Amino acid sequence: MNATDEKPIREKIRAFILASIHVPDLADDDNLFESGIVNSLFAVQLMTFIEKTFGIEVGMDDLEIANFKSIEASADFVIRKKAQPETV
Amino acid sequence: MKFSTIGVVGAGTIGIGVITDLVLHGLHAVVVEISDAAQRKAKAEVLKNIRFAPMFSKTLPRTSREDALRRMTFSNELRDLARCEFVIENVPEKWEIKRPIYEQLDSFMPPAVCFGVNTSCITIARVAAVTQRPAQIIGLHAMNPVHLMPTVEVIRSEHTSDDTVATLQALFAQLGKQAIIVNDSPGFVSNRISHLFMNEAACVLQDQVSTAEQIDQIFKQCFGHKMGPLETADLIGLDTVANSLDVLYDSFQDPKFRCCPLLRELVEAGHLGRKTGRGFFTYPEALDL
Questions:
Q1: Euclidean distance between the first and final Cα of chain B, in Å?
Q2: How many angstroms away from the CA of B200 is the closest CA of chain A?
Q3: pTM for the full model?
């Protein structure tokens, strides 16, 4: 996946987060959890949004805060998952 | 005492959390909820909570979807709780709803079974008075998200026996929870204080002193709270907050508990917070997640 593919993913994630958590702006690498911007309830919403929007499944092994700690981390996670071959 | 089957009355926001906690810890939950739609929503929410729980707590047991489904039974008949070893009630904070439930439960549940009143403000003594088992009525004010909160405010009335306290603590031991035991009074400790915060935050917003975002930012960034008062109210449900303020106002007859008109307007407009997608803030994806 190249940079032109990454940008829309990042922007969709950013738009969802900004619409949901009521802060004026966020840098791609702002840590959502350490800064106290979001809580566990929002994290579940974010993961559900990512699954629905990008057609991927967050598996048991993916349930790490590090995968969703920022816009950048979430976009990287989506890109990694989309690059994986689908298993039946 | 080791519990295996717990009755849960009401599957709203807190009821869903209680069911999640029970199921995660291997207990069977018999859930009575009169609304079929609420039953369906509760089942889906519990499964979602269980799926994502390992991300937020490494100590919570892992539970498969199949096991979780096996451990939940839904019904709209209180009598289906007859074999439960303990009952946790989580219906809305309205006496006209709570009262008949306790009267009915008391009429058929085995005499030894204790009832946990998951209430925000109604006193435990008031509930105890409509049953023939006042010593076995105990308050447990669990907070959202129930399965991730390690501690519960527990309320004993003047009737609650030491055995009942020990019974609840045995249940909490199975759930990995601690109790902070306080005396009975409207709103107990938590809501008598927190609802003043939330109500006054609504008044500050109504008076246009600041935006909703600024109010919450001050609490988070200046006081170090995890959540601001307005998003907390949205999480609890604005109807529940307004109902609790009404109970506090009726109980103390103190105008400091009078519900802010803006809060009342939002409730009347159906903007109940996170659960409806809009309260003091909007939650664009809340409805269809």
A1: 39
A2: 20
A3: 0.84
